[in-house]
Amino acid sequence: MRDRIDDEITFRKLEVLLAFMETGNLAKAAEALNVSTVSVHRALHSLEQGVRCALFRHEGRNLKSTEAAQILADVAQEVMTLLSDGIRATREAAGYSSDRLRIGSLYSLTIKTVPGIVVDIKVRRPALHVELVLGPNVELLDKLKRSEIDAALMAMPDAEPEIESIPLFEDDIFFAAPAGSPYAKQEAVDLRDCRDETFVSLGEGFATYHGFVEAFRVADFTPNVTMRTGDIFSLMNLVSGGVGYTLLPGRVRGVFGDKVQFIPLKPQYLMRQTIGVSFLRARERDPNLLALMAVCRLRTRSAD
Q: Contact 201/209 with Cβ under 8 angstroms?
């Protein structure tokens, strides 16, 4: 069994020892560490107590190191180097300041938002490799909490202590119909007039799905949903093919040209999504995330 290391021996005191051994002078060591000379002297004396042997001797007013001090300094240098390498490897394993940035995103944001952000962040950090992970809001939030992604572009989640979110823009929900639909000529759709219609929707976990459910709760009826799909572009295909109506965020307007028409809803059904970038608060000082936040804030100001 290893000898227990005395509590007086700390990494900070070993740093003081290394500074003193390099400069050979209390005042110069204190200047290098940005502390007082008294603090350096106390740290060195405390190390002597911790190792239970003399490390220094006095020659007049000067403090001189012994062979024992040199041996401890050599070991301290190895320990500090190993610890530094270990911290770096730990951070890289957690995605902190590595050469890659894993961004989660809603499918609907890949049309315009994601490409713009990726281009801007590559300008700031050209060597950074950006990976894109697509999924619904619930799935992205879960991946974020488990550190499977570094940040998520999604509808802003409910407030949680471990998650930090920065808003990017707000998006209204529209009634989506195929070209030539009788609803296309209306200025605004009243969902209560759609009781007998067929609908299609996204699956649970998507931010747009929750808006869909809430809108029909206000309309006070359960829509006849004949098909659910796992991405918004497949959903738009179903609408354009006449399979059913649905509700869609304005950010995907125009993707299918005139094949899918976006019609405003009556005011009582107004649903608005706040899209933002979310990340773990524990990693808010990660250089890669700082660069991502800077890009997102700049784009928000430009949009305003």
A: yes
Q: Which of 162, 158, 228 is nearest to 199 (CA)?
A: 228
The domain made up of 11-93 has a fold known as Arc Repressor Mutant, subunit A (1.10.10)
Helix (H) or strand (E) holding 147: none
Indicate yes or no: pTM above 0.70. Answer: no
Q: From first to last of its 304 residues, what are the pLDDT tens digits of the chain? A: 567 888 888 999 999 999 999 998 899 999 989 999 999 999 999 999 989 999 999 888 888 989 999 999 999 999 988 888 787 777 666 656 568 899 999 999 999 899 999 999 999 888 889 999 999 999 999 999 998 999 999 999 988 899 999 999 999 999 999 998 999 889 999 999 999 999 999 988 888 898 899 999 999 999 999 999 989 999 999 999 999 999 999 999 988 888 999 999 999 998 889 999 999 998 888 889 999 999 999 888 766 5
**Which residues are within 8 A (CB) of 220 and not within 5 positions of it... i.e. 6 or more apart?**
192
What are the sequence ranges of the domains in the chain?
11-93, 100-168+274-303, 170-273
The rounded radius of gyration (Å) of the Cα atoms in the chain is 30
Residue 121 · residue 149 · CB < 8 Å: no
Phi (first) and psi of residue 107, to 5 degrees: -55, -40
Q: What are the structure tokens assigned to 94, written together? A: 């957690």
User: The domain 100-168+274-303 belongs to what CATH superfamily?
Assistant: Periplasmic binding protein-like II (3.40.190.10)
Burial class from Cβ neighbours inside 10 Å (0-12, 13-18, 19+) for residue 12 reads exposed
User: How many other CB atoms sit within 10 Å of the CB of residue 193?
Assistant: 12
Whether 170-273 and 100-168+274-303 are alike in CATH topology: the answer is: yes
Element (H, E) at 57: strand 56-59
Question: Per CATH, the architecture of 170-273 is what?
Answer: 3-Layer(aba) Sandwich (3.40)
